[in-house]
Amino acid sequence: MSKAGRQPVIGVFDSGFGGLTVLRALIERLPQARYAFLGDTARLPYGSKSRRTIARYAAQSAQFLVREQGAEFMVIACNTASALALDAIQDAVPVPVLGVIEPGASAAQGASASGDVMVIATDATVHSHAYAAACQARGLRAIEKACPLLVPLVEEGWTTHPVTAEVIRIYLGELRAQAAAEGLKPDTLVLGCTHYPLLRRLIEQVLANNSASGVRVIDSAESTAETAVKLFNGRAAAQPGGALAQTEIRCFATDSVKKFERLGSRFLERPVGRVELIDLGG
Ligand code: DGL
């Protein structure tokens, strides 16, 4: 039975509000559940920080969701924290923790016929080579590229802007040239950052305009939600009182609450409601 004797809370954490794309995918599959989402907006971006700092921030954030909000499952809806701090988070909280890297790599395995995949992500995620390792473990060859300009462009709300399209064109052109130089024939592109699903349409347009319309785009938000539901659904459904009549969501942020409320609805595809400001210290 959950601690409160009610439907268990699923804690979802990201460095910012990009992880709301994972929450959206979770709600689609598991609408009658309680969610607590935390965006560590005061300390975003994680993608340019060291492993040590990312681990400290992510562990504090997970502890808030478990200790203060009673989360009994944790979904790390941040590729950077999943790539660099999954162990630290698992050590910090006594509940099951799911990251986004393994589900993303599994989805790439299901999608790729050539066995060669491209991954775009933040600097920290790429330098950790977490995706390359997860792909290699599944018999895939992965080529990774850091795309540091994309998070600020999404944060700015420029998800359909021509400048963003041009930045994507340059990044993907470089990545495909690198793949060709290494003799790879990638047919799959993993969006290895929780902000990138917001750019999916633009990315697919750029691929189509560059004779790469056959490349499958993998959204780790979708594959993570699928894995999470498989893992958690049985336990949630087994709670006394049955399922909730509707989704319950509480959103927390460490800064920029108004921006979260404004842009978050775009990520979540429904109003995020009132976002509560919290302080996790330094
Ligand atoms: N949430 C991060 C990720 O998915 C992107 C934003 C950041 O750099 O903090 O990698």
Walkthrough of the structure:
The relative contact order is 0.19. The model has no long low-confidence stretch (mean pLDDT 92). The two termini are 35 Å apart. The chain is built from eleven helices and ten strands. Strand 1 (9-14), helix 1 (20-29) and strand 2 form a beta-alpha-beta unit. Helix 2 packs across helix 3. The protein has two domains: 3-96 and 232-277, 3-Layer(aba) Sandwich (Rossmann fold); 101-220, Rossmann fold. A six-stranded parallel sheet has the order 4-3-1-2-9-10, sandwiched between helices. Strands 6-5-7-8 form a four-stranded parallel sheet, with helices on both faces. The protein has helices spanning 20-29, 51-68, 79-92, 101-111, 123-128, 130-136, 150-155, 162-181, 200-209, 220-237, 257-268, and strands at 9-14, 34-39, 71-76, 97-98, 116-121, 141-146, 188-192, 216-219, 248-253, 275-277. It has 282 residues and is α/β, with parallel strands linked by helices. Residues 14-16, 18, 44-47, 78-80, 122, 125, 151, 193-195 line the site of D-glutamic acid.
